[in-house]
Amino acid sequence: MPLSKRDFLLALPASLAAGWLLTRPGFAAEGTAGKLSRLAGPVTIIRSGVESAAAPGQDVLVSDSIRAGADARAEVTFSDGSVLTVGPGSEVAIAFFAPEAQESSAVLDVIAGIARVTVNKATSWGRFDVRTTTAVASVRGTDYLVENTGAKTAVFVAEGRVAVSSRAGSGTVVLRQGQGVDVTAEKGPLTVKTWGAKRRDEALARVTIP
């Protein structure tokens, strides 16, 4: 069952959860991060605790969550051209998005399920993180997916490189194209693997809108 945003925050270490409440130069608490560019199936926007049906072309604000139904998908095109695809049965929150700030930063939280992020290489990001309760994936410009099952996080890189850090203190690994890693809540070594065609193709299909 997907975590509510409140439960997700409670599951984070206090120092990291506090980051949701911090402001940064150029960051507006209710600023527009992008638009819903494509939808497939029932998708919900959660804004200030209120759920409403999403519509193509609708603005996505910083602090919004996008929840896709069991057979649905949603695509968000951000103001800088980066793209987020939310897979079926998934929820992603836009914690920060400030590409033009002095210290440009973006933070997305995969609360449940799977999401794909294609980061615009032309944007000079100081920080672009995708977080779950067990891992943080950090990039500058690349194409990758993150899946949060609750018990573990899987990260796979379709293009570029991604640094993946364990929130349990198991260190950081750098993934290259075709590589993935599974990160649990337990402290232990992170093992980088080249994903086989079956696992790769099935995961990418879940975050692709026909």
Low-confidence stretches: 1-29
Q: Which CATH class applies here?
A: Mainly Beta
Percent of residues in helices comes to 10-25%
State the total count of DSSP E strands.
17
Largest sheet composition:
17 strands, mixed
Q: Tally the helices: what do you get? A: 3
Q: What is the CATH third-level topology name?
A: Jelly Rolls
Pfam families: FecR
Domain FecR protein: 64-162
Protein name: FecR family protein
InterPro entries: FecR (IPR006860)
Could you please describe the fold and organization of this structure?
The protein is mostly beta strands. The chain has a single domain, classed as Jelly Rolls. 10% of the residues lie in helices and 47% in strands. It is built from 3 helices and 17 strands. The protein has a 17-stranded mixed β-sheet that branches. The longest helix is centred in the last third of the chain and has 10 residues. The radius of gyration is 16 Å and the shape is globular. The N terminus is likely disordered. This is FecR family protein. InterPro entries: FecR. It comes from Dongia rigui.
Provide keyphrases for this structure.
single chain; 210 residues; Jelly Rolls; 17-stranded mixed β-sheet; disordered N terminus
Topology of this protein?
Blueprint: H1 5-11, H2 14-17, E1 32-40, E2 43-47, E3 50-53, E4 59-61, E5 65-68, E6 73-78, E7 83-86, E8 91-98, E9 105-118, E10 127-131, E11 135-138, E12 143-148, E13 152-159, E14 161-166, E15 172-176, E16 179-184, E17 193-194, H3 197-206
